[in-house]
Design brief:
Blueprint (H helix, E strand, L loop, with lengths): L1 H22 L5 E2 L9 E3 L11 E4 L2 E4 L7 E3 L6 E9 L4 E8 L14 E5 L39 E8 L2 E6 L2 E7 L3 H8 L16 E4 L6 E10 L1
Antiparallel strand pairs: 1-13, 2-5, 3-4, 4-13, 5-12, 6-9, 6-13, 7-8, 7-12, 9-10, 10-11
Length: 231
């Protein structure tokens, strides 16, 4: 009898440990080493040299002017947490996208990837476009406005951003404040897309797994402390 009880306890313990291991989140990995562009390439130009408009500036990825092209990761991700700091120039505009797929039929990362907006809210015209602030920093661009319009720091100052995409649910944070939360599939998501500028775009948000992109919108922008962990 004692032997049977011991076996049951051992089996239960093994099951708990196994389940814990399976559900354990992945380790954080740096997407930028602070020194060079290892792990990144220009959209639709893997293997080609980057434009000299993209530079490493004091440990940050920096776009110095228009014409650099959008950057994408070499790796693809599906369920993940992404953290970074960003800083935008005065009157500047940029963005961070996920679910990006490279194909010659797509001009840009935003053809397929939804966007976390990076913006000088005070002075860029796009801040005053869209609906109810859904073009402002921290928004799910053109779909959901940020919950706190005062969370973003002024142009020239660093902002700490976080994005979580996990099993059909997305959330953005900016400077420690939750900005948006949304489904990434299903009727509610379909309604968000249908009410946006992306409603007729063939490939938009159709790929659960894809690359992370940093946008060249023609303005100076900086990204640092970029790291990700798969969930």
């Amino acid at each position: 009898m004692k032997k049977v009880k011991f076996s049951l306890v051992l089996a239960a313990t093994t099951l708990i440990l196994t389940c814990g291991f399976v559900q354990k989140k992945g380790k954080w990995q740096n997407l930028f080493n602070g020194k060079d562009f290892s792990g990144w390439h220009a959209f639709n130009k893997q293997g080609e040299p980057l434009s000299d408009k993209w530079v490493v500036d004091d440990g940050a990825i920096a776009l110095t002017g228009k014409g650099g092209g959008d950057l994408v990761t070499d790796q693809e991700f599906e369920n993940f947490e992404l953290e970074m700091d960003w800083k935008i120039s005065e009157k500047g505009n940029s963005g961070v996208m996920w679910g990006v797929v490279e194909d010659k039929k797509y001009c840009c990362p935003y053809s397929t990837g939804p966007e976390m907006q990076v913006l000088d809210d005070a002075k860029h015209p796009d801040s005053f476009a869209g609906k109810n602030g859904n073009h402002k920093a921290g928004s799910l661009y053109d779909m959901i406005p940020p919950a706190d319009l005062n969370a973003v720091k002024p142009a020239g100052e660093w902002n700490k951003a976080k994005m979580k995409i996990d099993k059909g649910q997305g959330t953005f944070w900016l400077n420690g404040k939750q900005m948006v939360t949304f489904p990434t599939k299903g009727p509610e998501w379909d309604a968000l897309v249908a009410n946006s500028k992306f409603k007729t775009w063939e490939g938009f948000a159709k790929f659960p797994k894809g690359k992370i992109a940093l946008q060249d919108h023609g303005n100076k922008v900086w990204f640092r402390n970029i790291r990700i962990r798969e969930l």
